[in-house]
Design brief:
With 427 residues, the chain is of the alpha/beta class. It contains seven helices and 24 strands.
Length: 427
C-alpha cells in the first residue's frame, strides 16, 4: 500500500521576531515647510504636459490626522501604509517599505491625498530590537576536563537577530578540580538588553568521552519500502566520505539521483577529492545529478566568491538540481561574528551570484533551523534534513534527507538517503 506524502499549500519558513512590530502609535504635527512643491510628470511626448501641485506642509488642513506606529522591529517589513495606519488620509506609494535596517530614530518623507488635494509630510519613527538572542546549542556536549579552565563558550552556541556579538554569562559553580556534575544557568544578552537563559549540567571528567554511534542502519531497499509514497523519487548524497562509489550498482537498487559535494571552505576553497569522479560516473550511469557546497562564509563577499568558484568548475555544465548552500556550524555559531540577519543575507548573496551566471541556489538545513533561523524570503528550493519516520515540517520542501545511516551495494559505509517530492518544482 502506497502512502501519500502530504505537503502544505505554502512555504512557512520564518524566523520568529522578523514580523511587524507595533507597540504603540503616535500622532505628530508635521513641521512647516517654506514653499509649495510642484511635481512634474514627464510625458511620452512634449504634448499635453501635466503638472500636479503638492501642497507644502504648512498648508495641511487642521483636520488632517497624522498618526502611526511609534516603534517598529528591526529588519521587519513595514510599508508606508502600515506605518501611517491610524491617519485619516490616503498615503501615496503606500506599499513602499520604510527603512528598518538600523536601530534608532528615522524620518520618512511621504505624499498623501486628502479631499482632492495632495500634501507632503515627514513622519518620525523608531527602529528597535525587542527580539531576544536565539539558543542554537544548549549544551550538546557539556563536558569539562578535570584540571582545565571551564569556558561555557566552548559548549554552547547562540546568535542574535541584530547584534553580532551578544554577551555570554552564567550562574552556578563549576569546580574543574573535582570530578562531578555541576548545574548552571547560561544567559545570553544582546546590545539592546534582550536576554535568553537556559539551564544545563556540566560534567567534569578525567577524560572527555568519545562520541557514541548506536544508530540503526537501513538498506536502500528497506528505505524505499518504509517511505513508500506516491509520486516521489529516491536518491543519495555523497562526498569524499563515501570514496569510490559504484554508480551502476547504486542505480540497479532503484536510486534515481545523486547530490554530491563539489567543495568546501573553512579557510580556503577546496574541491572534494572525489567530486570529479562522482560527477562523471554518476552521469555515465544515467542518474540525475546535483551539487552542494559546504561553507563557513561569514561575509557576503566570501559567499559570492564561493559561488563564482562553483560556476567556474561547472564551466557551463547543466545540473538537474539547484546548487545547495550547506551551512552547518551551529555548535559555536558566535565564533563567526555575525547575526542571524547576516547569514540570511549571505545565503541570498550566494544565490544571487549563481543566478547572475545562469544557475539557481537551494537551501539545505534541518527542520529546527528552517523553522527558527532561516527566513528564505525568496522562497528558494528547500532540501530538508529531518531523521524521523514521518516529517512534520510545515514548510514546502523539494527534497527530504530522511536518514544519514543508509547502506547499499556499491558504497562502503554509511550514506545519506533522500526522497525527492516530484510535485514540488526545483526550478
Amino acid at each position: 500500500m502506497k502512502k501519500i506524502l502530504i505537503l502544505p499549500a505554502v512555504t512557512a519558513v520564518l524566523f520568529c521576531g522578523c514580523g511587524d512590530k507595533a507597540e504603540g502609535s503616535a500622532s505628530e504635527k508635521v513641521p512647516a515647510a517654506t514653499s509649495a512643491v510642484t511635481v512634474t510628470t514627464a510625458p511620452e511626448t512634449t504634448e499635453n504636459l501635466e503638472t500636479t501641485t503638492v501642497c507644502a506642509e504648512n498648508e495641511i488642513p487642521e483636520d488632517v490626522v497624522i498618526s502611526g506606529l511609534e516603534e517598529v522591529e528591526v529588519y521587519s517589513d513595514v510599508t508606508l501604509g502600515e506605518l501611517l495606519r491610524d491617519s485619516n488620509f490616503d498615503v501615496q506609494d503606500h506599499k513602499r517599505l520604510i527603512d528598518t535596517s538600523e536601530l534608532g530614530e528615522h524620518d520618512v518623507e511621504y505624499v498623501f491625498d486628502y479631499k482632492g488635494k495632495s500634501y507632503e509630510g515627514t513622519f518620525t519613527y523608531t527602529v528597535a530590537d525587542t527580539t531576544p538572542p536565539l539558543c542554537l546549542n544548549s549544551g550538546w556536549n557539556p563536558y569539562a576536563k578535570k584540571g582545565e579552565p571551564f569556558d561555557p563558550d566552548t559548549i554552547v552556541g547562540f546568535a542574535d537577530n541584530y547584534d553580532r556579538d551578544p554577551k555570554l554569562s552564567y550562574t552556578g559553580e563549576v569546580d574543574t578540580s573535582t570530578v562531578g556534575n555541576y548545574p548552571i544557568t547560561v544567559t545570553v544578552t544582546d546590545s539592546s538588553g534582550n536576554e535568553t537563559s537556559w539551564e544545563t549540567t556540566v560534567f567534569v571528567l578525567n577524560e572527555i568521552p568519545a562520541a557514541q554511534d548506536n544508530n540503526p542502519r537501513i538498506t536502500f531497499r528497506e528505505f524505499m519500502d518504509k517511505y513508500c509514497y506516491e509520486n516521489v523519487s529516491y536518491g543519495i548524497d555523497v562526498s569524499a566520505w563515501q570514496t569510490n562509489v559504484d554508480y551502476e550498482a547504486v542505480k540497479a537498487q532503484g536510486c534515481e539521483f545523486v547530490l554530491m559535494r563539489m567543495g568546501y571552505c573553512y579557510d580556503e576553497i577546496k574541491m572534494d577529492d572525489y567530486y570529479e569522479q562522482n560527477i562523471a560516473n554518476a552521469s555515465a550511469a544515467g542518474l540525475d545529478v546535483g551539487v552542494y557546497f559546504y561553507t563557513t562564509a561569514n561575509t557576503e563577499e566570501k559567499a559570492r566568491e564561493q559561488a563564482r568558484w562553483i560556476v567556474e568548475q561547472l564551466d557551463g555544465r547543466q545540473l538537474d538540481y539547484p546548487i545547495a548552500f550547506d551551512w552547518e556550524e551551529w555548535a559555536r555559531f558566535q565564533q563567526y561574528g555575525m547575526s542571524i540577519h547576516d547569514l540570511n543575507e549571505i545565503f541570498e548573496a550566494f544565490c544571487d551570484e549563481l543566478e547572475k551566471n545562469g544557475y539557481s541556489g537551494m537551501l539545505y538545513s534541518s527542520k529546527n533551523f528552517l523553522n527558527n533561523f532561516w527566513e528564505n524570503r525568496n522562497n528558494r528550493t528547500v532540501w530538508l534534513a529531518h531523521y524521523v519516520d514521518e516529517t512534520d515540517y510545515e514548510g514546502t520542501f523539494a527534497i527530504w534527507q530522511a536518514s544519514a545511516y543508509g547502506r547499499m551495494e556499491g558504497i562502503s559505509g554509511d550514506v545519506d538517503l533522500n526522497i525527492r517530492v516530484n510535485e514540488v518544482p526545483v526550478y
